[in-house]
Amino acid sequence: MTAPTATASDVELSNAIRALAMDAVEAAKSGHPGMPMGMAEISVALWNRHLRHNPANAHWPDRDRFVLSNGHGSMLQYALLHLTGYDLPMGELRNFRQLHSKTPGHPETGVTPGVETTTGPLGQGFANAVGMALAEALLATEFNAPGHGIVDHRTYVFVGDGCLMEGISHEAASLAGTLKLGKLVAFYDDNGISIDGHVQGWFTDDTPKRFEAYGWNVIANVDGHDVAAVDAAIKAAHAVTDRPSLICCKTTIGKGAPTKAGTEAAHGAALGEKEIAATRAALHWNYPPFEIPDAIYAAWSARECGALLESSWDAKFAAYRAAFPERAAEFTRRMAGELPGDFARKAKEFVAAQSAKGETVATRKASQQAIEAYARLLPEMIGGSADLTGSVFTNWSGSKAITSAHQGNYVNFGVREFAMSAIANGLALHGGFIPYVGTFLTFSDYARNALRMASLMKLRSIFVYTHDSIGLGEDGPTHQSIEHAASLRLIPGMDLWRPCDTVESAVAWAAALERRHGPSCLLFTRQNCPFVPRAQAVIDAIDRGGYVLADFDASASGARAVVIATGSEVALALGAREALLKEGINVRVISMPCTSVFDRQDAAYRASVLPAGVPRVAVEAGVTSYWHRYVGSLDDKHGTVVGIDTFGESAPAPVLFKHFGFTVERVVAAVKGVAG
Ligand SMILES: Cc1ncc(C[n+]2csc(CCOP(=O)(O)OP(=O)(O)O)c2C)c(N)n1
Ligand SMILES: [Mg+2]
Fold first, then answer.
1. Are 365 and 393 in contact (CB under 8 A)?
2. pLDDT at 643
3. Gap from CA of 309 to ligand 1 centroid (Å)
4. Each residue of 489-520: pLDDT tens digit?
5. CB 572 within 8 A of CB 525
6. How far apart are CA 190 and CA 469, in angstroms?
7. Which of 194, 198, 250 to mutate to test the pocket of ligand 1 (most atoms within 8 A of CB)?
8. Statement: residue 3 has pLDDT above 60
9. Radius of gyration of the chain from Cα atoms?
């Protein structure tokens, strides 16, 4: 990027950030002024001298990615976006942290133009950045051609002490080192302060040595208030292309505030009128709040330079398109997140083929068959597991492990569930990929906040969880998920599928892949689940989330009841239906592989599946509480749940199902209890 032509000094550029941060926090009477004031010069070095972006188009594919992992310092990012010329007017900064502003408390992607990922849960933005850098490296290998470097950008991430204390930073940094993500540059805001005070009492790692041990290029002891020093460090980072870089910047939190700088008092509260006045005087910043002189705006503006950068990329891409029209079209499709036009039709054909085959297998196997079918059609599918590939079956015949050569489509994440999930989110955020990552359902807890973030950001991240109940048997209660399905369903916007056989598994996978704006959890069994034959109309109803799998017997009279089941318990429900028919009770079995999708159906459809006034029993090998929303309150005499409200036990699976009462007899008794 060319050097700015306007005449404002680096000091003025830095102080503009400081002023905006302290004034916006003061106006909101809430927020975090210390970090933006401490990272102001680092930001000048990066954003005014190196970052390749175009404020007029926050979505230009080859822009550099910037992540503020220490998201509490959101005013830093808002100040930078405003000053460089994004569509973030001063009114939004005045409205910091207010309802429906574009300046929420922590940066949120989709709310503020130029914010690449939602940050705030410390450490996770760093892992997102690793995912973005991985996406760039893989796309570069796949699409670039000699003389046509159409994918060639960097990922920059700011981290604080908190990010580096978090365990996820270890997981993500370790993998980034192994994968040699040379275009990832992290800046450590080494200010020695976190909320409880000086960090000597709780954070004494030798961070440079730690990152060297991961195989990073570490640039230590940089004066974070010296723009030229940070600029030189960035150049040194760029010079090392086979390792990610960490630039360790010594800074003073709240720099410029006469009494609060260097203390935790600057971290997360408004400085107060008196301190702000004293800061203005100390900085010689003689402008009123929310006023920036034109010369400083001019020096900060990235609009002209950004337009040039993008238009020169456009020219590059036009040449690429002329030379490789198909690859260019594929790149455009992938970055737009669109599936190939014939995907839906081919997915339906696969579902029909699975139905015709009628195999009884474990649904984890059915999942693998679906991956095999769909990944052939979707080169954007990038898989991986947390060291359980042979158990969760997330691989397929075309899987090729990604190494430091940045080729392939399968990440061996190692035992790192949280980073795996946050890296998946980074891949989805970057664009060009649909990530799917797997482990045992019970370990979703290790990754949980990344699932919440995927939902908050409406990302197409697919989380594959096998060994989805006590059905895994001998590994015992530590490995048996009891509350997980229910609790993951509680994440707003998460679609959780728990299919019962090969056909439902194929439909669930297609639904997750076709879901453009939201994540999915796909739950599968370790043990075999019998294939259920269905008419075409029934197959067509699976993607409504809940449907009538076996209806009332029209020729039978007598009491009626509805049994709702998911996954491995559908077979039990079908068995109970047969037994009950013989005893004069007429049962409809509803398979409910995805409750949230069912809930989104219109009321008429839902009522047609779940008729009012008919007693209901829900059956799922997990906690009972979730199902009361479908069968009525605990005291409802006409509804009950067959579930499990304790942890599991270690024993062979068939013994456990019997022990915990997942038998046809128990379901029969439960139905009689409500339908009598
Ligand atoms: C996962 C997570 N835990 C806790 C918090 C609450 N929190 C926000 S900032 C912070 C301290 C961070 O210290 P540091 O990164 O050094 O920030 P600084 O005070 O230097 O700006 C904490 C504990 C959080 N945002 N995310
Ligand atoms: Mg700190």
1. yes
2. 98
3. 35
4. 999 999 999 999 999 999 999 999 999 999 99
5. no
6. 44
7. 194
8. no
9. 28
Question: What gap in Å lies between CA 543 and CA 612, rounded to an integer?
Answer: 22
Residue among 401, 459, 467 nearest 430 (CA) = 459
Find residue 590's DSSP bridge partners: 548, 564
Identify which of 490, 588, 569, 505 has the alpha carbon closest to the alpha carbon of residue 543: 505
Q: Directed axis angle between helix 124-143 and helix 325-336, to 10°?
A: 160
- The Cα 175–Cα 188 span in angstroms is 18
Determine the number of helices (DSSP H) and then strands (DSSP E) in the chain: 28, 20
Alpha-carbon distance 528 to 567, whole Å? 11
Over residues 93-100, the mean pLDDT reads 98
Length of the chain: 676
Kindly report, residue by residue over 219-232, the tens digit of the pLDDT: 999 999 999 999 99
Percent of the chain with pLDDT over 90: 98
Measured in angstroms, how far is the CA atom of residue 281 from the centroid of ligand 2? 25
Ligand 2 centre to CA of 72 (Å) is 11
> What is the average pLDDT across 294-314?
98
- Which ranges constitute the DSSP H helices of 59-123? 74-84, 90-94
Partner residues linked to 412 by β-bridges: 385
148: DSSP letter? B
Average pLDDT, the chain: 97
pTM of the model: 0.98
Q: What is the pLDDT of residues 629-663, one digit of tens each?
A: 999 998 999 999 999 999 999 999 999 999 999 99
Report the distance separating Cα 480 and Cα 460, nearest Å: 27
Q: Name the DSSP class of 145.
A: B
pLDDT band at 556 (very low <50, low <70, confident <90, very high): confident
Q: What is the pLDDT of residue 6?
A: 52
Measured between its terminal Cα atoms, the distance across the chain in Å is 78
Residue nearest to ligand 1 atom 12, measured at CA: 162
User: Which has the closest alpha carbon to 65: 599, 507, 432, 409?
Assistant: 432
List the 245-250 sheet strands across, edge first: 65-68, 155-159, 184-190, 245-250, 217-223
Q: Using CA atoms, how far apart are residues 70 and 48, in angstroms rounded to an integer?
A: 20
Selection from 477, 492, 479 nearest residue 392 by Cα: 479
Residues within a 6 A CB radius of ligand 1 = 34-35, 70, 72-73, 120-122, 160-163, 166, 189, 191, 193-195, 253, 267
Cα angle 360, 364, 369; round to 5: 75
Distance of CA 4 to the CA centre of its chain: 36
Which of the 8 DSSP states describes residue 44?
Answer: H
Phi-psi region of 511 (alpha: psi -120 to 50; beta: other; left: phi over 0): alpha
Residue 586 β-bridge partners: 560
Rounded Cα gap, residues 36 and 313, in angstroms: 32
Quick one: average pLDDT of 142-146? 98
- Tell which atom from ligand 1 comes closest to the C-alpha of 191: 20
Q: What CA–CA distance (Å, rounded) separates 291 from 271?
A: 19
The Cα angle at residue 522 between residues 518 and 527, in degrees rounded to 5: 180
Residues recognised as catalytic: 417
Q: Which ligand 1 atom is nearest residue 162's CA?
A: 15
Residue 94 CA to ligand 2 centre (angstroms) = 26
CB 591 within 8 A of CB 630: no
